[in-house]
What does this fold into?
Amino acid sequence: MTVTATTTDPQPGYKWVGTRPVRHDGLDKVTGRARYGADLNLPGMLIGAVLRSPHAHARILSIDTSAAEAMEGVRAVVTGADFPMLESGGEGSGEEYYDPLDLCRNVMARDKVLYEGHALAAVAATSRREALAALAAIEVDYEVLPHVLDVSEAMAPDAPILHEDLITEGVEPVPTTPSNVASRYVIDRGDIEKGFAEADVIVEREFVTQPVHQGYIEPHAVVADVGEDGKATVFCSSQGHFMVRAHTAELLGWEPSRVKVIPAEIGGGFGGKTTVYVEPVATRLSQKAGRPVKIVMTRDEVFRATGPTSGCKIRLKVGATRDGRLTAVSGSMAYQAGAFKGSPVSLGCMCAFAPYTIENVFLEGFDVVVNMPKVTAYRAPGAPMASFASETLLDEIAERVGMDPLEFRLHNAAEEGVRSVYGPIHKRIGFRETVEAVRDHPHYSIELGPNQGRGVASGFWFNFGGSSSATVHINEDGTASVLTGSPDIGGSRASMALMAAEELGIDVYDVTPIVSDTESVGYTDVTGGSRVTHATGLAVIDACRKVVADLRARAAMVWDVDVDEVEWVDGRAQHVSGDRAPMTTRDLAADAAGTGGPITASAAVNARGAGAAFSTQVCDVEVDPETGYVKILRYTTAQDAGRAIHPSYVEGQMQGGVAQGIGWALNEEYIFDADGTMENPGFLDYRMPVASDLPMIDTVIVEVPNPGHPYGVRGVGEVGIVPPMAAVANAIHDATGLRLSELPMSPVKVLEAIGANGG
Amino acid sequence: MARVIFGSALRRYTGGVDEVEIEATTVRSLINALDRRFPGLGKHLESGMAVAIDGEIMTDALYEPVPEDAEVHFLPPIGGG
It folds into this structure.
């Protein structure tokens, strides 16, 4: 792999930031010592299992659990009646916005089941065999209802209605009858008719994508233990244990402080573990049984009952002048929300053309409920499918006006001070630099062979700040412990340690980064929105700076001088005169009791200043005209990281996003039968790319520092997944002349397109 | 005076008005002023919407200062994965 880095800012003289130490949690993970959600076992622990709907849409007429409750080994049974019905409304904000009523009905169905796999009862028994036998003994009387999965069919006037109280928001006049369209979102700027009138070239197409799953390796797993005092301890893997605490307590009708959540290691999340499924269920079962209860989902359950992201229908129209200036974009996007409202369609509308300067925009988005699991966030939610459509059309229009696709993007690139497509003025951004990085990369000039093609695409993601807390202790030996509330999904322990080492001036291996439970560190939002290195990093930096101020004050006390005469240099207190022997953290920690007690500081932020992320990617493919198989020959991704704290983990995020995007482009999809049952709920039939499917993905870290962070950090976890679908589609077009507009571009679809084209 | 630009989704609360100038020192006072002018808008703005002040997108920002001559947008909740 060739890894190059470009920067628009001279590298400051950092000692640790920008280096690549082995991650602190690495040894435990490669030796199997790390404890994931399923690894905890407690004395007397019961095994829980969940009864799931076999129907895509049905009314629950009755549930009889009496036989199950009487079975040997069964200690508790719960249904929807064991959980309070919450009131509808928008709760939380940003990353954590949700409707409590929808959440409680998703975790445990009430009057209706709304998708195949929807939970409607659960049992806890002394063994899994007994638990499964008890599930089989639960008698449910269903009235099966017509179901709908296709987003267009769900929007039709005669569609089966999922929620009789769902009235479309965002339209005037307000509808008087329910529908499956939860809301309409519109971006309407400039004069769209004038914009298209100015265009010399107009392209328009319809695009279709299928729902895809986040595909994390580790299934959802929890152990809940409700004690004699009525308080619960919950051990689970998630993207945010404070989120688990809040949701579990709310769904049980408790105060949050009644629940303590201990974070397990997490085997992937990608947005899919930003909500709860089995955690409240295991906790209620434990409360009823008086014993710890463990629930581990099977892979089948993960596919059938946890959030995929939306499948979509998108129609877009783009106009440009002969010299390659974009004049107008318009179109509509309809996203599947799953069984409850809340698809990321508004984000799709906002992101689709965000890398560009376009004055005339009309985009409308529809959030549509259908009979499949409620969608959950997936890396840059909403953006990849919208950008598949927009970046394919931009490729087509560049071709029509005779411009290189990268030069076309540079010609229209959004920059600092320019109004974004979604409204606000862009702050300092590095989109142009990512395009230039790909243009200047050797990959872009490699000669291609027969049946081979090259495609490029770009992508945008907002990134997010949010609330984070951190505590830093200086230990007796001068080392530091850094406690945060952010689950480590992508190497954030190492990033926190590097920033702490930089601030404190000590060796990075003298810093121990710890992910603390909900009672040991302040509230922290989920690990999502590419926010942790930025927001939790700000909290760590702030706490470290408090510690350094304290260390300087203690040194001043020892030397009996004014604190202003003490500098902190390379992990030591130095007197400005130079006539005193410097004191290290170890020296100061050893005397801590005499200078004021333990050395510790905490900080908390609701972080602002998360700089936006951009990525530009180039993909080479070879298309087999006999089979339709698309082989990825080369792939290079350039992404603005602002400042890479740990470049290896930045590259890992970039490569991971691309790998998932290629799977989305070529293979992945939910396949349902006529009854709305998922037919491929396993990794044999739901085909994600594995190492042998992909070349090494080359990375170019572009560094346009974010002015909102002391080191210039921009989140890197999400934007990498935005461009791949269009990059692959554009490469297939270059190889074959075909414009594919439906995902996945599987061999069957490619072969059909070749056949339809007379090939 | 802050300049508030309303996206299409909010214009139904403003009777089609797409831009106003409002005197405000914080986001909360801005929302209160907007609600006095467009009754019902305030509740909608406080229901999880993000706010962008001079291009900086924020959530939970009721007490965020609004600089003189700031440009303000209200946006849908922005999360992530």
